[in-house]
Amino acid sequence: MAGTGSRGRAERRSAGELESEVLATLWATERPLTPAEIRTGIGGGLAYNTIHTILKRLYDKGLVLRDADGRRGAYRPAKDAAELTAEAMHDALHRGPDPVAALQHFVTGLSAQDALALRELLAGHGE
Questions:
Q1: Do residues 19 and 38 share a domain?
Q2: pLDDT tens per residue across span 73-122
Q3: What parts of the sequence cross the membrane (predicted)?
């Protein structure tokens, strides 16, 4: 059957899923990675061109930086995972008409451990 090879597997993943996988691969190392190294890290038979396209999208969004120093064509994340998550949370909070109501729903859905961590962070923030 045509189209059932590795390319078919790659097409089933959304661009957002692939971007997340590329970022996770970059966050898992301390050094910039080439598209070939990222491809190996992700696995799943993705084409080199697919990885390159995802890296270009991430670069255009300001989420990865191209390493101009040293290895040609190596990429590193522009932000760590916590920074990117916090930015997404801020964006989501301000997308709706009532940020306070959104915060209320968010906070009531926290686990006891996360609620405690939030209280501790808020208590320390005012110092």
A1: yes
A2: 899 999 999 999 999 999 999 999 999 999 999 999 999 999 999 999 99
A3: none
- Token readout for 22 is 């590329």
How many whole angstroms separate alpha carbon 50 and alpha carbon 120?
43
Q: pTM here?
A: 0.72
- Please check whether residues 100 and 38 belong to one and the same domain: no
Based on the fold, state whether residues 57 and 94 are members of the same structural domain: no
Backbone angles phi, psi at 33, to 5 degrees: -120, 145
What Å distances lie between residue 114 and 20, 32, 75, 81, 89, CA to CA? 23, 32, 33, 17, 15
Backbone angles phi, psi at 69, to 5 degrees: -105, 110
In the 8-state DSSP scheme, what is residue 2?
A: T
DSSP alpha helices (H): ranges in the chain? Answer: 6-12, 15-27, 35-42, 48-60, 81-95, 99-108, 112-125
**Do 37 and 64 sit in the same domain of this protein?**
yes
Distance CA 53, CA 119 (A): 42
Question: pLDDT tens digits for 7-37?
Answer: 444 456 788 899 999 999 999 999 999 999 9
Question: Is 1 a domain residue?
Answer: no
